[in-house]
Sequence to fold (275 residues):
Amino acid sequence: MSQQPENCTHDCSTCGADCPSRDNVISKESLAAGSKVKKVIGVISGKGGVGKSTVTALLASALSASGKSCAVLDADMTGPSIPRAFGLYERATASDELLNPAVTPGGIKVMSLNLLLESPTDPVVWRGPVIAGAVKQFWSEVNWGEVDYMFVDMPPGTGDVPLTVFQSLPVDGVVVVTTPQDLVGMIVEKAVNMAKMMNVPVLGLVENMSWFECPDCKSRHFIFGRSRADSTAARLGIGACAALPVDPELAKAEDAGELEGFVREELAPIVKAIQ
Fold:
């Protein structure tokens, strides 16, 4: 058997080379009968704590408000927070050997491991292969029904779960989330390069916590340094970018489970790129 090519993309579906990677090929998973998802959008970052879940929820809410059927697959198995952001606390149900997603008041369908645990604070102490298997089950063993846009909230990094999502789900594009710090930007670039290796388009970049507006004088304070959204997007060849402020009202809404319907106009370029 030949050696793995130097320019390997790790996407064996587009390659005819005979190399060791083919021994571990993960084929695209099928949806359950009766389900149809038109577009799958991943939300990624190489760094934790940058607000991927918040951005995921905001994007799903924005598309849902425009009249589209939306869903969120929470692939951050060890740190799931999507249900809390939408105020979903009841455990998921099952029918005909398939899981039923929880549904927000506005109609966004959600599947997360926190909807299956006895308590939302129970730890998930699983190794990578088990977590990767759960991600595939959330795609193929859930009654998703008709969905226009499914957002996949991924854990940070370029490990098992992002690789599983890219290889097993028909991802149409990704949105990258970052913050202004140089260190974060360097690590986020790894996630961008991973998406490019997997031949997945990078649709947009969101710089979170870009500034804070003083409630008294209305002046902007760049707590983590000046915004690098435009320059970073240009350097990485990303067409759409947006910068979100540190917003106490958004944090309050998320803690209260009322993020659905919370509008941030700054995300309009990203929503347009997704559409």
